[in-house]
Structure formats: C-alpha cells, structure tokens
Amino acid sequence: MDKFQELMVNRRSIRRYTDRDIPAEDVKLILEAALLSPTGKNSRAWHFIAVDDKEMLEKLSHCKGYGAGSVARARMAVAVCVDVTATETWVEDGSIAAFAMMLQARELGIGSCWIEINGRFAEDGTPAEDMVSELLGLPEQIMPLCFVTLGYPDEERKPQNLEKLLWERVHIGSFHADQCLGE
Ligand SMILES: Cc1cc2nc3c(=O)[nH]c(=O)nc-3n(C[C@H](O)[C@H](O)[C@H](O)COP(=O)(O)O)c2cc1C
User: Fold this and answer.
1) Residue 15 C-alpha to ligand 1 middle, in angstroms?
2) Which of 23, 37, 59, 111 is the most exposed place for a label (fewest CB within 10 A)?
3) Which pTM does this prediction carry?
4) Which structural domain, as residue segments, surrounds residue 30?
C-alpha cells in the first residue's frame, strides 16, 4: 500500500479523545493543510476558527440536537467557515479544506471527525449555523459549514475494508443501471 492509500484506509471518524494537548506545530500543520487546499476561482474565501477552550467546546456541542456531542470531548475543534458573498462554491471549498485537515491529522496520529453544521438544527429548533455564528462572533456573510474535531484517539477504529468497497458504483464509459440496481 502506498502512503496515501494507507492514510485513506486508516482514517476513520474518531469521536472519543484523550485530554492530551495537540502540539502547536501539529496544529499549524493541520491548518496549513486547509490553507493549501484548492478553491473555485482561487477565491480562498474560507476562515478557520480553532477552538480549544473547553467551555466553548461544550457550548458549541449543543448547536444541534444530536451528532455534535464529540465537539465537547475533542481537544480542539476547527470551525470551517466561508464568506458566501465571495464565492458560489463555498460548500465545495470548505469541504475540501475540512478533509485536507482530517488527512493531515491522521498522518500525525491525531483523530478527527467531521461535524456538520450547515442545514442542521439545535434541539429547540434554532439553526445550528445561527448558534455557532453567535458563539464565535461570525460576521453575517461568514457561514459555518462544519467543525473538524481533533484530538488523540481514545477509541480504536478498524481500518476500512478494501473488500467492501462499492465498486458497483463505478461506471465505465456511461451509467450502467444493472451495475447498481441489481437488475
Ligand atoms: C458531510 C459529512 C457530515 C458528517 N456529519 C457528522 C456529524 O454531524 N456528526 C458525526 O459524529 N459524524 C459526522 N460525519 C462522519 C460520518 O458519520 C462518517 O464519516 C461515516 O460514518 C463514515 O465513517 P468513517 O469516517 O469512520 O469512515 C459526517 C461526515 C461527512 C462527510
């Protein structure tokens, strides 16, 4: 297996973390990966808010009814935000940056998980993006897309199984319904 394939196979979502601090140079490398990622028309309209304050992480974990609990357990969460007035590819740009950080984290032995904000709701029905924007002081045009939680894993996850890849979703030349609909 080459190094990149190893990263892809071994990266799994980590939702339980130890208290161990992430060294500053590793945080820098992870944020650097985000800043190196490509954007539509090279807009580079993202903003990354790195949060390590435990009280703030706890507050942010309530931005949606379920699925954000690991934000409170993480040693750090990076809110991936994009200026929606500066690009129409804000979801794509933010997504690529988020995944770049996840892969860089994995290479450093640091666990991560994507926590969706966009289009989600808190338990009381408040849009998750409103709660996050208020807590982090985001200007109106800066939209939070997701968090990337970070920390040293406190759980074991199995690598992906290459035998279980959905190769039937890969079509050569044109779409072949019989490949994916089982006809
Ligand atoms: C767009 C997107 C949104 C996700 N949202 C959440 C989330 O809100 N909370 C969570 O715990 N995991 C979330 N995940 C992680 C997925 O559940 C996870 O990647 C998927 O189950 C595959 O598992 P793996 O990452 O361990 O391979 C999200 C992943 C993606 C790509």
Assistant:
1) 10
2) 23
3) 0.96
4) 3-156
